[in-house]
């Protein structure tokens, strides 16, 4: 497992997760894919087998957004929030809330896009209300079947070695 | 071992292929420094350096009393780190894989639109 690969996920503080990824496309396209509902639903479709059933994004400061996904077993997960800052094509700040509020409050999402030579670097900084909320970020139904226990440790180590 | 500092230490420790190989070996059972050094073209002091990093991250422990001081895998921090972040990473890698495809399509559309003008 290369943690410095095309996608990196780090935890710089108690309450944050920072996702960094490069895309082989100019940033106005990446920005569009993050802010236009018809494009968002083409890629942000959740865990395997899930479908995105609601995708709204009112792309302006003070605008609301809402996403819902449906699991194969019929379970519906929803989240939404308000857009706090909106600067095409470089920056979006959102304050979001999951319907089942396991996050103890607002989660602030900061999306930053920079472009060099037609390539875009995306930095998504997610700040949770508490450390517990951050650590529970995967304890949602979307994480079903994602549980790793000690029993799977060997398998994980083999993965770590072969990647 | 759930504080984020230890999680960061865990990932730093895992960022090196030799250390990952050491962990994989220890997943099969305890081993001494000499036994761990065997498969690598490395001196024992070099291996000891890696062991210190792993020990600092809480990924292994070494018994203090026995003369050969065998190293033992501490599964908990690794399970926390791997369970949490690997799955998170996999999820986003899958989503971004789809975003890559969409971006390719949009780039083609833009190029077509450009050539029609």
In short, what is this structure?
Chain A has about 160 residues and is an alpha+beta fold. Chain A contains four helices and eight strands; from the N terminus they run ββααββββββαα.
Q: Could you walk me through the main structural features you see in this protein, from its secondary elements to its overall organization?
A:
The complex is a heterodimer of chains A (163) and B (117). By secondary structure, chain A is an alpha+beta fold. Chain A has one domain: START domain (Alpha-D-Glucose-1,6-Bisphosphate, Chain A, domain 4), CATH 3.30.530. In chain A, β3 and β4 form a beta hairpin. In chain A, α1 packs across α2. Chain B is mainly α and 117 residues long. Chain B has one domain: Arc Repressor Mutant, subunit A, CATH 1.10.10. Helix content of chain B is 69%, strand content 5%. Chain B has five helices and two strands; from the N terminus they run ααααββα. The radius of gyration of chain B is 22 Å and the shape is elongated.
């Amino acid at each position: 497992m290369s943690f410095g690969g095309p996608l990196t996920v780090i935890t710089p503080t108690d309450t944050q997760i920072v996702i960094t990824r490069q895309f082989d496309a100019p940033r106005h396209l990446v920005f569009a894919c993050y802010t236009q509902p018809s494009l968002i639903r083409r890629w942000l479709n959740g865990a395997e087998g899930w479908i995105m059933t609601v995708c709204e994004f009112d792309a302006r400061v003070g605008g609301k957004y809402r996403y819902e996904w449906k699991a194969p077993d019929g379970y519906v997960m929803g989240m939404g929030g308000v857009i706090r800052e909106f600067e095409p094509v470089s920056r979006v700040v959102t304050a979001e809330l999951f319907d089942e509020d396991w996050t103890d409050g607002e989660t602030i999402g900061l999306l930053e896009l920079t472009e060099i030579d037609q390539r875009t670097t995306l930095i998504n900084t997610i700040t949770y209300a508490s450390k517990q909320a951050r650590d529970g970020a995967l304890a949602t139904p979307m994480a079903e079947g994602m549980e790793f226990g000690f029993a799977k440790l060997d398998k994980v180590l083999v993965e770590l070695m072969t990647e | 071992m759930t504080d984020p500092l230890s999680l960061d230490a865990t990932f730093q420790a895992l960022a090196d292929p030799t250390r990952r190989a050491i962990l994989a070996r220890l997943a099969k059972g305890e081993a001494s420094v000499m036994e761990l050094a065997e498969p690598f073209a490395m001196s024992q002091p070099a291996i000891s350096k890696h062991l210190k990093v792993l020990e600092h991250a809480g990924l292994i422990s070494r018994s203090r009393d026995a003369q050969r001081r065998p190293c033992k895998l501490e599964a908990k921090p690794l399970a926390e780190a791997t369970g949490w972040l690997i799955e998170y990473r996999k999820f986003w890698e899958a989503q971004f894989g789809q975003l890559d495809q969409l971006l390719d399509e949009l780039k083609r559309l833009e190029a077509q639109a450009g050539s029609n003008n």
